[in-house]
Design brief:
Blueprint: E1 5-10, H1 17-33, E2 38-41, H2 45-57, E3 66-68, E4 82-85, E5 96-99, E6 113-116, H3 122-137, E7 143-146
Parallel strand pairs: 1-6, 1-7, 2-4, 2-5, 3-4, 5-6
Helix pairs in contact: 1-2
């Protein structure tokens, strides 16, 4: 099994949760335009609900067909190219994963590409550092994209 390409998108530490979710919407929009099936996974139901709402209202130029999967869903009944879920269903394409969870989901290694979007608050940044280390232990060479503020030296968080 090949190790996925892993990219971390780090927002400005002063940015709020809305900035993070808007970034997710932009990344989902790019993936949808490129024809990549996308799964967004978050362990906070409020994040999933907020993303569901934003994907309906946030993008002036396009509508992104998406499904918010219930916690017990297998993914087999989902037909939209973008899925929002609290865990990784067995029956979804393993193309692009956008991870908003506190940890690296076990099945994340099965995807071709993973985008990690840590929260900007101190706890979220610490969880991001731990995920960065976890990906390295799995054999990935994560790339960091610093958005806003001063870029950090090197490739780590």
């Amino acid at each position: 099994m090949a190790i996925p390409r892993v990219d971390f998108y780090i927002t400005d530490p002063t940015a709020g949760e809305r900035t993070r979710l808007n970034l997710v919407c932009r990344l989902v929009d790019k993936a949808y335009a490129a024809g990549q099936p996308t799964l967004v996974v978050a362990d906070q139901p409020r994040e999933l609900a907020a993303l569901d709402e934003l994907l309906w209202t946030n993008l002036d130029s396009s509508f992104i067909p998406h499904d918010l999967l219930p916690a017990a869903a297998s993914g087999a009944e989902a037909e939209a190219p973008v899925l929002l879920a609290s865990s990784i269903p067995a029956a979804v394409p393993r193309t692009l994963l956008i991870n908003l969870c506190a940890e690296v989901p076990a099945a994340a290694i099965e995807f071709a590409r993973v985008l990690e979007i840590p929260a900007a608050d101190p706890q979220g940044r610490q969880q991001g550092r731990e995920r960065f280390r976890a990906w390295r232990q799995l054999g990935a060479e994560p790339t960091t994209h610093q958005l806003g503020g001063q870029p950090k030296a090197g490739r780590s968080l």
